[in-house]
Amino acid sequence: MQSPRCCILLLLLYLFLISGTWATMEGTFTLRILHTSTFQNSSFVDSEGLGLLEDIELGSLDKHNMSIHLYQPWVHPNLPLGDWERFEALIKNNLQLFRYMFNAVAKQRDVPYPFVAQGVAGCELYSNRTSRFFASVAYNGQECLSFDTDNATWTLSQDNVVCRYIQTVFRNYHFFDIAEIVFNYICVDDLEIVLRSGGRAALERQEVPVATVFARTPSPHQLLLVCHVTAFYPRPISVAWLRDGQEVPPGSALNTSTVLPNADLTYQLRSILAVAPRDGHSYACRVRHRSLGTRSLLIPWGNSQVLLLTGLVAALLAAVAVAATLLLWLWRHRKHQRMEESESRNSIQLYEI
Asked: In this structure, are residues 134 and 38 in contact, taking their beta carbons and an 8 Å threshold?
């Protein structure tokens, strides 16, 4: 196993080799590398990793052979020669350091196995060619320490033997001080290339939300109106209930879920409003989303639904009336034709006699 100093030398090598060009970009973009390792014992560690550009999965770590699988065709081919290979080496050596630190603290401080360690590192890219590095480490599902970018130091989120040990290692080897510089270069150079070669188009795509309203009756005295909104992208969305055209304020009767992901990289949520059955009010669910522009989706319930149903019934009755009139005309037309044909045959018979 390579020592932390070896990993730092590789980071320095990457820093000097990395290169790229800059062109003005608009907006803020976030690159995140997520990592989870489950330590069963000192020799068996199960590791998983995921790379995200905003909410788009760039690739994942194969826990069986530690190779990186890319999901987006615009990530690798457009990078300068050798940049991806160096970045892949950086990730793998980070993983080695992670395992080294936690196995060392388990051995030196008698930390019991099994346990779970997690890490996140990344950067935000701004339009003025600046970027901000961020990183944190978690132990058994709780944040252990995080990087304070303002003071360029690691701060403890919980004070225990594991977190103090990891903090000491990071400070002694200045590991993430160097990683901060590396990630900033990645943001300014390689990330800008990835955005221009397809990342920006993927992030700026828009999918129109699909909304439906239905009701549930948990008791005879309560009616739950459910507005289900799905298939939208990007994530930000506004969903509100209107009572007689006025927005229902937040309260115990209104319950809106968090935005949840779908398998096709769209999102969904539900907004539930508790009302009294037959309370005489008109309700509608209003949806606002970037893909709709200045328009809104308005899905009615209550009196509006009754009016809609009445309109459908009236339209159906009108269609039946038209069909009946047409059938009556056809019947009279054919009756008249038969009478004319009968009279014609009678005239012919008289003439022959």
From this structure: no
**What's the rounded Cα separation, in Å, for the pair 304 and 301?**
6
Contacts of 262 (CB under 8 A, 6+ apart): 230, 231, 268
Burial class (CB in 10 A: 0-12, 13-18, 19+), 212: exposed
Bond into 234 cis (ω within 30)? yes
pTM of the model: 0.69
171 residue type, one letter: R
Q: Report how far Cα 345 is from the mean position of its chain's Cα atoms.
A: 81
What was the pLDDT predicted at 150?
Answer: 84
In whole angstroms, what is the distance from residue 55 CA to residue 222 CA? 38
What are the structural domains, with CATH classification, of the chain?
Answer: 4-203 (3.30.500.10), 210-306 (2.60.40.10)
Burial class (CB in 10 A: 0-12, 13-18, 19+), 223: buried
* pLDDT, average across residues 156-183: 82
Burial class (CB in 10 A: 0-12, 13-18, 19+), 43: exposed
- How far, in Å, CA of 125 to CA of 189, rounded? 10
Estimate to the nearest angstrom the gap between the alpha carbon of 349 and the chain centroid.
Answer: 87
Confidence of residue 20 (pLDDT cuts 50, 70, 90): very low
